[in-house]
Amino acid sequence: MRLKLLLGSLAIAAATAGSALAADAVKIGFITKFPVPFFATMENAAKAYAEANPGVEIIFGQGTSATDIEGQIALIESMVTRGVQGIALTPVDPTVASALDKAIASGVKVVLMDNNIPDWDGRTALATTDNYNAGKIAGTYLKSVLKDGDTLGILEGVPGVPSLDDRVNGMLEGLQGVDVQIVGRGATNCTEELGINVAEDLLTANPDLKAIYAACGPPAAGAAQAVKNAGIDTDTFVLVGFDFCCGEEEALTAGIEDATVAQFPSKMAELGVDALVKAIRGEKVESLIDSGAALVTPDNMAQFK
Fold it and tell me: Choosing a second label site near 164 at 20 to 30 A (CA), which of 13, 15, 65, 302?
């Protein structure tokens, strides 16, 4: 009799534990903007999180470009159809908010990563670099190497995307205190090809251009190529980027790029996924999670690889 009672108790305990584990299981979607190393690093960090947390299943999706709005909306809708409890994503444009509203209405929680959606209060949390302060890091560096009367060209990312605009506006604030003339600025959609084109236009229109600031990694690498093609003396020219990715390491090593601002995409993804999982499980999470940023130069870049 005692043995039967013991076995019965164990069976009940096992069933209860199994139910608890099943209830604790989480299925989420993870959506990034487009295929560049930065977002590949984020995906790898999310995969590592899932491996370290067996109760977490992650479905991955990615857009085709920095302006693939319809593609990201389709991914959001697909994730909801596949029964995710939450979505962690790097929003490609504020207009994806309507698709996220529908997801939330169906019970899906949303954590944004990398950049926010202004004036949208549907998110549970935002895991991101403080792009404005990170831009100030770049501006402060430029201030230290430029002087009154120098000229600067700006390679923007995608105008209207808050995180990318913040990188430019923060840089301009960090630059305050030195009278530098902004002689031109152009959108690059965060692509190397447009980075080359816009940089070439700036260099052609301004033969005495002293410096270029690029708000994304691929255009920074593109600007480095344009500077090299133009045969400019890199000892007297200043190129500063943002992201420390996509060819910037090579440009820094070659002495064409002087500095860039590194984000920590692995940390951003890990913190974003963790916040989403906790929120789904009913735990409290911070609404704003800063993943940090740092200045990278040829002298210290080894520690950021």
Answer: 302
CA 90 to CA 61: how far, in whole Å? 11
**pLDDT band, residue 7 (cuts 50/70/90):** very low
**Which one, of 146, 116, 115, lies nearest residue 39 by Cα?**
115
Question: What's the angle, vertex CA 235, arms to CA 226 and CA 263, rounded to 5?
Answer: 65
Measure the CA–CA gap between 6 and 8, rounded to whole angstroms: 5
Beta strands per DSSP E along the chain: 26-32, 56-62, 86-89, 109-113, 125-128, 151-156, 181-187, 211-214, 238-240, 260-263, 288-290, 293-296
* pTM assigned to the model: 0.75
Among 257, 250, 245, residue whose Cα is nearest residue 145: 257
Residues 110-128 pLDDT 10s: 999 998 998 899 999 999 9
